[in-house]
Amino acid sequence: MNAAFERLQRQLRDFFGGPGGDGVRPAAVAAVAGVGVGLWALSGVYIVQPNEQAVVTTFGAYSRSEAPGIRYHLPAPIERVEKVPVTTLNRIDIGGVGDAKVPEESLMLTGDENIVDLNFSVTWRVADASKYVFTLRDPDASVKAAAESAMREVVGKSDLQPILTTGRGQVQAQTAELMQKTLDSWGAGISVVEVQIRSANPPQEVAAAFRDVNSAGQDQESARNEANTYRNRVVNEAKGDAAKLVQSAEGYREQAVREATGDVARFNQIYNEYRRAPGVTKDRLYIETMERVLAKSNKVVIDGKGASAPIILPPDVFRPRTQPAPSAAEPAPPTVAPSTGAAR
C-alpha cells in the first residue's frame, strides 16, 4: 500500500509540475477548471415529480414555473428551484380534535344570539405554486385564520337549530365560498377543496337543558303528526261517504228517470194498440192484469165448457207456494176436478 501511494503521488506531481517538478502545468489547471465548471453546470439539472410544480427564481426574484419532468436551471447562485406539491391534499382541524377541545376556536355566537360549540376541518391544496411561495409566510396559519373567520361570519348569520340539524350542508358551502374569496384577495394561490363540520353541539353547561328542549320539541312534532294523521283520515272518510251518497242519489235519479221514461214509452205503445184494436187490447190488458194478481195464488180456474171426462190436476197446484215441496217418499194423492163448472 505504501508503494502504491508513493506511485500515485509521483504521478500527480509529474502531471501538475512536469518531470522536473518546475511549476504547474497550464493544461492541468485548465483540465481541473473544466471539470469544476462542468460539475457546476450539471448541478442545474433537476427532476420535478408528477405531483409537484417547480418555482424558479433568478437572484431571488420569480422567473418561471416548471411542470413535471426533467428540467434545467442555471446553477446557484444564479437561479434556485423550490418544488411545491400541488396535488397533495392538506387538512387543518379547527376547534380541537377528539376530546382535546379548544374553546377559543370552537365557541361561536349564532344569529339568534345562542352559543354553539362547533368543530370543523378544512381540506385545501396548492393551486398556484408561484403565489403560494411568494405570498404566504406560514400557509397553515393563514388558511386556519381565513377558515375560522369565514366560519364565524357564516354562523353569526345563521340560527342555532339549522346548524345542529339539517342546515350543516349550507353552512359548509357558504364557509368554503367565503374562505376562497378571502384567500383569492390575498393572492395566496390556494384552492379550498372542502369544509366539513365534525360536530356541532350546545355548550356543555347548557347541554342538559338543550336536550330537554329538543325532547319537548320532538314530542310536539309527534303530537302534531298524529293530529294531522287523524284529520286526514277523518276528512278522507267524510269525503268518501259524501261521494258515496252523491253517487247513490245520482244512481237513484237515473233509475227513476229511466223507469218513468220506460213507463211512458210502454203506455204510448199500448195506447197506439188500443186505438187500432180496442177490444183485443182490453182483453189482453185484463188477462195480463189477472196473471199478475193470481201469480202467487194457489187457486186454479178451469173452463169446463164441453168437458166430459174428469180433469186431473197435479197435487203441487193446491199446495201453498211458501211451503217446501214434498219429498219423493211422501207423494200426495191426485185431485179430481169436476167436469162441469169451475173447479177451485
Describe this structure in words.
- Helices cover 50% and strands 20% of the residues.
- It is an alpha+beta fold.
- A hairpin with a 5-residue loop joins strand 9 and strand 10 (115-126).
- The longest helix is centred in the last third of the chain and has 70 residues, at 207-276.
- The protein starts with a helix and ends in a 7-residue tail after the last strand.
- The relative contact order is 0.06.
- The model is unreliable at 328-344 (pLDDT under 50).
Low-confidence stretches: 328-344
Whole-angstrom Rg: 57 Å
Global structural class: alpha+beta
Share of helix, binned: 40-55%
Biggest sheet character: 4 strands, antiparallel
SSE order, one letter for each helix or strand: HHEEEEEEEEHEEHHHHEHHEE
Q: What does the oligomeric state look like here? A: single chain
How many strands appear in the DSSP assignment?
A: 13
Measured between the Cα atoms of the first and last residue, the distance is 163 Å
**Individual helix count:** 9
Average pLDDT: 81
The rough form would be described as elongated
Question: Approximately how much beta-strand content do the residues carry?
Answer: 15-25%
